[in-house]
Amino acid sequence: GTVLVGGGSGFVGTHLTKALSSKNYGVKIVSRMPGPRNVSWHEIGARGLPENTVAVVNLAGQNVMDFKRRWTAGFKQNVFSSRINTTASLAKAINNSLKKPKVYISMSGVGAYKPDPEAEYTECSNIRQFDFFSKLVIEWEKAAALDSAAKNQCRVVTIRSGVVLGRDGGMIKQLYLPFILGLGGPVGNGAQFMPWIHIADLVDLIIFCIENNQVEGVLNGVAPQVCSNKQFSNAFAKTLNRPAFIPVPSFVFNLLLGAERAKMITEGQKVIPQRTQELGFKFRFPTVQSACENIVKGA
Ligand code: NDP
């Protein structure tokens, strides 16, 4: 069957579509750009799901950490609508389809859990709105809901992902140069938690959700080893054989990114993948050291 991947051209999507193809799934990407395997968002709205769609995954979203884009009202709206509208239009296409896919997997973030030095969050923790990102996550997850008739036929899975670690995208791509130059270090005092997941585990987790009929609801997409920003910086620098003693004060990020957005790195929450593990998912890279070694040495 075919897996339809919204935003499948991005960092996570490139890894996912490669893995799906190697498992002999057909892949179609919903994109703003034309391409051989691409369909447009307009086509999905007008014509519905491609034939023989067995699973739908949404990974679309304006990159929040684009340092070139100022944190303006317009950009925030873009961050918001690129996630909520795409998620809602895939839900609508599923609602309207005659033959339902077996699962709809929608990405979300850990931003609904309030940063706190003590609280431990599982998928069962209550979430409520307290800032821009918590509002975003709540609306994003709501947009993925199917109508009641569709719900009986199609599982809905929400993956609340931590920072995705991989060489060719996301945070590591931005940190590679400063860390190679020995200019890496923790953000602020580095004590804030940094929920993270290796790209290979996130891809495996999405495929696990496609292939296991008992999986539905919210899953935390974070590695079992909870680490602090400083532990991550140390592990990454050590793997590169570089020091990591140059801390970057939080105010620098507040200036560069705007304080509201900078919270994504200057603060963090302790997130446990409780349901993910109870459902039987096995992480290939459970520790930050093993993840960094794989990313740097390709081992
Ligand atoms: P990318 O930044 O690589 O973007 C994914 C795709 O989204 C792009 O390829 C693009 O597809 C599409 N897109 C970008 N801007 C817009 C827009 N304004 N409107 C519609 N579509 C847009 O994301 P990642 O692969 O890194 O992440 C995938 C998802 O996971 C995202 O929703 C992200 O928020 C979430 N996530 C990511 C984390 C990370 O660390 N990377 C952490 C937690 C959650 P095209 O140009 O083909 O239209």
Strand order of the largest sheet: 3-2-1-4-5-7-10
* Largest sheet report: 7 strands, parallel
Basic shape: globular
Instruction: Bin the strand percentage.
Output: 15-25%
Structure description:
The chain is of the alpha/beta class and 299 residues long. Helices cover 42% and strands 16% of the residues. It has 12 helices and 11 strands. A 7-stranded parallel β-sheet has the order 3-2-1-4-5-7-10, sandwiched between helices. Helix 6 links the parallel strand 8 and strand 9. The longest helix is centred in the N-terminal third of the chain and has 24 residues, at 73-96. The mean pLDDT is 96. Bound molecules: NADPH dihydro-nicotinamide-adenine-dinucleotide phosphate (NDP).
Summarize the structure.
By secondary structure, this protein is of the alpha/beta class. It has twelve helices and eleven strands.
Itemize the secondary structure elements and their pairings.
Elements: E1 2-6, H1 11-22, E2 26-30, E3 38-39, H2 41-47, E4 53-58, H3 73-96, E5 103-109, E6 120-121, H4 132-143, H5 148-151, E7 155-161, E8 163-166, H6 170-180, E9 196-198, H7 199-211, E10 217-221, H8 229-239, H9 250-257, H10 259-266, E11 270-271, H11 274-278, H12 288-297
Parallel strand pairs: 1-2, 1-4, 2-3, 4-5, 5-7, 6-11, 7-10, 8-9
Helix pairs in contact: 1-7, 2-3, 3-4, 8-12, 9-10
Bound molecules: NADPH dihydro-nicotinamide-adenine-dinucleotide phosphate.
